[in-house]
Design brief:
alpha+beta, two-stranded antiparallel sheet, globular
């Protein structure tokens, strides 16, 4: 996966620059559960794993309306959980909405996630609502945040004027 925390990237750098750690690492990968390049050097702190139920990363967007996105790793796929406000339009402003999508991340850092059934605090989406052609939300992951391209999910499952497109800045990790 291309989503590595800063601590993990630092540890990889330490392992690569420390010949003693590389020499002491096992050469037979069947004897260890980690590849030698990912072995934690002696005395280095092991990066914290996300708490059960805690998102791996959190993102926020302010424009055109407030929105948040939580990113959770679920095995080989990522779950995107959006919470969006309606684009301000006086008394015609759409109500807040939730959407969830699941999908893999490719080598270019793009997560292509299909809308999935879920029951949230603000919205309930069933398999029957989605039908056979689930919209795809694309999320391009970068170092400072993510860029979201909605595949008509908000238009289909949120109030008129809801929008999840745009840049979301990273606001937190589970560490």
């Amino acid at each position: 996966m291309r989503l590595l925390s800063i601590a993990a990237v630092g540890l990889l750098g330490l392992a690569a620059c420390n010949p003693a750690a590389a020499e002491s690492a096992p050469t037979d990968v069947t004897k260890t559960s980690q590849p030698a390049a990912l072995a934690t050097p002696k005395g280095a702190k092991t990066p914290a794993k996300p708490k059960a139920g805690a998102p791996a990363a959190l993102f926020e967007r302010d424009d055109p309306a407030k929105a948040t996105m939580a990113l959770n790793e679920e095995g080989s796929v990522w779950r995107l959980a959006f919470r969006v406000g309606g684009v301000p339009n006086g008394p015609a402003t759409a109500a807040d909405c939730e959407l969830q999508a699941v999908g893999p991340q490719d080598a270019d850092g793009v997560i292509a996630a299909r809308l999935v059934p879920f029951e949230g605090e603000l919205n309930v989406v069933t398999a029957a609502d989605i039908g056979t052609n689930a919209p795809v939300i694309q999320v391009r992951v970068g170092p400072e945040g993510v860029f979201v391209e909605d595949g008509a999910s908000a238009a289909r499952f949120c109030g008129m004027g809801s929008n999840i497109d745009g840049f979301y800045r990273r606001t937190g990790d589970s560490d």
